[in-house]
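lol so apparently i was supposed to do this last week
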Amino acid sequence: MFTKETYISRRKKLAASVSGGILVFLGNNESPSNYPDNTYIFRQDSTFLYYFGLDKPGLAAVIDIDCGGEMIFGDDVDIDDIIWMGPQKSIADQAAEVGVGKTYPFARLSTFLAEALAKGRKLHCLPQYRADNLILMADILGCKPAEVNDGKSEEFIKAIVAQRLIKEPCEIEEIDRACDLGYAMHYTAMTLMQPGMLEQELVGAMEGVVISGGYMTSFPTILSQHGETLHNHMHDKPLTVGKLCVIDAGAEIASHYCSDFTRTLPVGGKFDSRQKDIYTIVSTANSFAAEMARPGITYREVHLAACRLMLQGLKNVGLVKGDIDEALALGVQGMFMPHGLGHNMGLDVHDMENLGEDYVGYDPGQERIRQLGLGSLRMARKLVPGHVITDEPGIYFIPALIEQWKAEDRFSDFINYAALESYYDFGGIRLEDDILITESGCRRLGQKRLPITVEEVEAAMAR
Ligand code: GLY
Ligand code: MN
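anyway here it is w/ manganese (II) ion bound
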């Protein structure tokens, strides 16, 4: 938890940026896995954590802007809870630690909000993403759960996004720590990987590092020799010499700040010459994007420049042909990289995605471009100091997509479909670092950068 003053000043700034009414924050509850008492690991809502810091289930809070009041709702434990969970601080004591003076039993939240509605007061609500909170808000608002998010407050969302997008120094320290743990996680895989092991063994070793040194993974680990499937969670194959293994994994530390790194490793420890060629195009694009990323440029421009560089690289190896600028404008790159260059990261690995991707990643008036690849760009905004984003270019050979575009005769002036036939078993390559936009450019987060060049990766794997 940060200092009490940190939470007080965040709430003050937020309240000053919304015109009036009542801001509603729902914390998360325990979530059952296969029966009520067997729960998933508890994860607090990130907005609740950001403004109220309390990392416990069963809490909600409001800020009444019109009268300057702040309240936390939650129930004190009884003797039954103490028997199973041990002694717990009272809600009032917990609230005092984050500078909130008024607390009430949880049931008071519904009556408080219902009374406010009856008086015609404006309730500012956030989009809910958990079923229990949707049901709670539906009861309060008198609508169906499926209708709750129709009433989300854009003003509230935009005020939160504006604040949380620019990381404070205390947050950057935490993200650096999460990246250090993410480094250890990936370095473990690099040095442990041996042909014949199951992919799952590497996943287990990496996740062990995170659980020992932090809280949990920041998202389900992606580790596969079928890296052409962008989010491949199947880890059941034996590691086979000559294959490439995409490892996209992150750490979430106890404060819940995240890291998100991707490396692509050659099973057996050496890239073959074709792998080296494609790998070098992606690693060059990764570094080039970090060199370009600075205040004033949009991340969409950086995405497009990285794509241009990769198209040129693919042309050099004979997989793409024709005029590169024309190909870029048409979106030819979408076949090789059907995702965006990066996303915001912070308390969430895709920061604030629950509030709405476009509010987070797009400036007012900046439209998402509906093209394969660009359409998945989660961060397109003009960069400003304090943004924390990922830099994750990739090149993939997805047989079904190649076949589809070929059958449609799509971009056949630019794509060498005949040459691509021998790449159907190649897989994919993605290389991801996490960067902080600074006054003059950007810096990579974490003390050390994971090995990334062909030489660095081969040397680390030889250890
Ligand atoms: N690292 C997974 C993702 O960015 O979607
Ligand atoms: Mn990512």
